[in-house]
Records
---
Amino acid sequence: MARAAAWANQLVIMDEPTAALGVKESGMVLELIRSVRDRRLSVILISHNMPHVFEVADRIHIQRLGRRSTLVTPKTHTMSEAVAIMTGAASVE
């Protein structure tokens, strides 16, 4: 991950980068995501870890049944609302 972040010049895609990591290591990955973003590079973070997503995301594309349901932001929706949209418990507004 660090090598991809160091060499990237436009976009970094991370698929579940914290899935098998401990708390300390996950924190390091989130800090890496912030540093890449601060270099004005785009980061696509694919994750089911909603606290991590809400910690670093500007926009959240919610998928349901293989399709994008909606686009939310951490400022406009809570984690509970995002999960409800993902699971189908809440309708898309």
---
Amino acid sequence: MDIAFFIELGLDIASAALMLTGAVFLMAGALGMLRLPDFYTRMHAAGVTDTLGAELIIIGLMLQSGWSLVTVKLALLGLFIFLTSPTATHATANAAYKSGLKPLLQRFRPRSPDDNGGAS
């Protein structure tokens, strides 16, 4: 076995680890979309994990493709996602707020001392 074999093996392991980590982040974002209570927290889960998960997968694919035109195209795609995904998330949340959708804040307010937990 020569050094080229170990370099290829290292690249394959790093690529698989990055793509698997990106998939885990995307699954966490999907779970957040289902479990979080209101629109704004769901937007946060979708925006952050979508950007990070997609970037990790793209970096893993760049390692897999080697030095080629595909790598350049993937790098440009990663740059495009890195710039547009947070901007789109912010624009959507801002439009929702300006249209009158208020954040759900009652769930997180501390109880007052005279509150008996809803019992009559």
---
Amino acid sequence: MPNFEVDFYETANGRQPAKDFLMSLDQKMRTKMLRMILMLKTNGNELREPYSKFVSDGIYELRAKVGSDISRILYFFIVGQHIILTNGFVKKTQKIPVNEFKRAKKYRADYLKRWRTK
């Protein structure tokens, strides 16, 4: 199975929310999340729990845990073997925060709108 291409979503003003989140993590968690991104690149849509989970509306979560700290990066697939990482957060409750899920859907809609007009 060929590798998937994994990219960070970029806002119109050049920000990359998922990359910014990744860089804000402590070294151990960042290393673990980078390993998860590599697994996602290698396995794509075959990556399953406990590493990845479908959330809803085409949005998935990439999961990392170090001790009791839990981090997530949300992502989606586009045509071909392409994955876009949208945003991340430190998980403090059982459910994904609604605002983070809405943000991922907004970023996906923006990405697809700009992607189609290229």
---
Amino acid sequence: MAISTQDIKQLRDATGCGMMDCKRALEESSGNVDSAKEYLRKKGIAKAEKKSGRTTGEGAIGHYIHSNGKIGVLVEIRSETDFVARSDDFQQLIKDVAMHIAAMNPLAVNEESFPKVVLARERRIASESDEVLKKPEKIRPKIVEGKVKKFIKENALLNQAFVKDQNITVDDRVKETAGKVGENIKVVRFVRIELGSETASVVE
């Protein structure tokens, strides 16, 4: 089917992707804009995954202060070049991730960065819970690991549903930007400070 220039421009304005990518996405999606957006999202994530092993020596530190002035966040996100770190797409990503951290209060960047003592505590709590103890002994370890995996999904930053779009994770949001700018992007660490809390959550 014929794809109009207006449709291509509409998709480009909505996604920030190039004209040819938008045209191809619309062609692959039979002109459906929502399907074309999903096509571009998956393509961007696929591109990002291919670059995930490349060195990230540049980047930027961004911040977010909640409107009530009682929650503040600093987040370090790295890129391959300073050119990308200064781009609008990268800066918007930093703002989005910092805002998400303020809202969702993650405990670690990803599964690998969770302190072992925290995961051990969660396993102990789960194994001693009434819900698990009333199950047959042979299936208890599987139930406990399921609960720990759920804990990680709910509390690891990259695994959490993105606060501005519950249909994707924060990791998806990062990879979308990485696919768009053509570089590897990595969330390194963050600090979340809440008024009245005795300690800041410093995570890397």
